[in-house]
Design brief:
The protein is α+β, with helices and mostly antiparallel strands and about 450 residues long. The chain is built from 15 helices and 16 strands. The strands form 3 sheets. Strands 1-5-6-11-10-9-7-8 form an 8-stranded mixed beta sheet. The structure holds histidyl-adenosine monophosphate.
Length: about 450
């Protein structure tokens, strides 16, 4: 390296974002809320790898889909030549795992997952190349009841998060024979209007004509609006299933609109499909989406097992929470330990551990690049930490085996300073912080 050349900075991969500490409390609030809602419906957590065989996604999602055609982060494992892919979504991996471990053969299972997904998409606000999903899959359930239940779970989550203006769009895309008949008519219809199709639509005409209905091209809207509607092709069983979902939603006052053009961008769906949509995020308004995928497990060599699921985009929901003015507890500590001198530092470590044993959160002052910091500097840090109390140790305190405990947040804080023997510091703090407050949490935390 030449001597006066500064090393080049390496920045993040485009579309893959850092979630910084200032954002973390809102993410935690979201995660805690979604965990407790999932638990209240009996869902259990499942964790599958981020990397899977490329073939898994090709087969599950479908070869002629945006995701498989142009968005997958696929690579060859240089060690053994395996064709691998960073998961673009969670359902395929969960289904693989369920089959591999015979999870759903002794009765239906409700599972959920969360984590990063990867799609090489065109970037936009609300559309990233690494994004986080929380997803849920109910495997082994055949009736419309579970479809409705999963939709109601989402509704409860929006309510618990304080999010308004998320509306439900619902459709049924029927079963394969119904879709085949519709598909044949759809191709004939588009062929009769071939001059009105754009290039993308022409390319999809025979491979995946249903996806033409999803076009964003304004010039094609009228053509698409007048195209044969899949809903008109449904037969008795599919209609009964869809009616069953709607009856439960109606009975529970869950509003929705039936959108006959809702077809979803992944191939594994049948019958019920749905999307939760908001107008507050511009073009990327879908915050959660899912549906039934009865044939998928059998198509992977498993025993025929019906299933339904959904996934939500966490970044989009966090944006909604922000615009709803949602605030989260910034996660302040209870105690900041201030110390001056080598003996005081040693004692500070011992006391901090004891205070943590009692369930309180402690930040122990540690040396910065500029040095250990003056008393004044450390007190400033204590103030900025949001701690309720500073515990202060210097030479005098070591000599007397006492600590100065200073209230940082009380109204009359100047008056609240006490010299407390080392042995009593823990009890004193617990009494000050927890005493008089109702704490039903096992982890004690003092909120201002
Ligand atoms: P999906 O519609 O591809 O479905 O994605 C679900 C949600 O993930 C979207 O509604 C959106 O909120 C979020 N999302 C998708 N792509 C991005 C992106 N590039 N940037 C930010 N957020 C994004 C699935 O993934 C299915 N696995 C859902 C499912 C589960 N169906 C049945 N079970």
């Amino acid at each position: 390296m030449s001597e006066n050349k500064k090393p080049e900075k390496i920045t993040h991969v485009k579309g893959m974002n850092d979630i910084l500490p200032a954002e973390a409390p809102l993410w935690e609030l979201f995660e805690n809320t979604v965990h407790s809602v999932l638990k209240s419906y009996g869902f259990q957590k499942i964790v599958t790898p981020i990397v899977e065989d490329t073939a898994l996604f090709k087969r599950a999602i479908g070869a002629v889909t945006d995701i498989v055609e142009k968005e997958m982060y696929s690579f060859t494992d240089a060690m053994n030549g395996d064709a691998l892919t960073l998961r673009p979504e969670g359902t395929a991996g969960v289904v693989r795992s369920v089959i591999e471990h015979n999870l759903a053969y002794d009765g239906p299972k409700r599972v959920w997952y969360k984590g990063p997904m990867f799609r090489h998409e065109k970037m936009q606000a609300g559309r990233y190349r690494q994004f986080f999903q929380v997803g849920a899959e109910a495997i082994g359930f055949a009736g419309p009841d579970i479809d409705a239940e999963m939709i109601m779970l989402c509704r409860r989550l929006w309510d618990d998060l304080g999010l308004e203006n998320i509306r439900l769009e619902l459709n049924s895309i029927g079963d394969a024979p119904e879709r085949h008949r519709h598909r044949a008519d759809l191709i004939a219809y588009f062929e009769a209007h071939i001059d009105q199709l754009d290039l993308e639509a022409k390319n999809r005409l025979h491979a995946n004509p249903l996806r033409i209905l999803d076009t964003k091209n304004p010039a094609m809207q009228e053509l698409v609006n007048n195209a044969p509607k899949l809903l008109d092709y449904l037969e008795a069983e599919s209609i009964a299933h869809f009616d069953g979902v709607r009856r439960i939603l109606d009975h529970n006052n869950i509003p929705y609109t039936v959108n006959p053009r809702l077809v979803r961008g992944l191939d594994y769906y049948n019958r019920t499909v749905f999307e939760w949509v908001t107008d507050q995020l511009g073009a990327q308004g879908t915050v959660c989406a899912g549906g039934r995928y009865d044939p998928l497990i059998e198509s992977f060599g498993g025993k025929s097992t019906p299933a339904v699921g959904f996934a939500m985009g966490i970044e989009r929901l966090i944006m909604l929470m922000k615009s709803a003015g949602e605030m989260a507890d910034p996660g302040v500590c209870d105690v900041y330990m201030v110390h001056q001198g080598a003996a005081a530092q040693m004692q500070a470590f011992v006391l901090a551990e004891r205070i943590r044993d009692a369930g309180l959160d402690v930040v122990l002052h540690c040396a910065a690049a500029s040095g250990p910091g003056s008393f004044k500097n450390q007190m400033k840090k204590a103030d900025g930490s949001g701690a309720a109390f500073a515990v202060i140790l210097g030479d005098d305190e070591i000599a007397n085996a006492t600590a100065v405990v200073k209230a940082m947040r009380e109204v009359d804080k100047d008056k609240q300073q006490a010299s407390v023997p080392f042995d009593e510091v823990v009890d004193y703090l617990v009494d000050q912080i927890v005493g008089g407050h109702d704490h039903d949490h096992d982890h004690v935390h003092y909120h201002h």
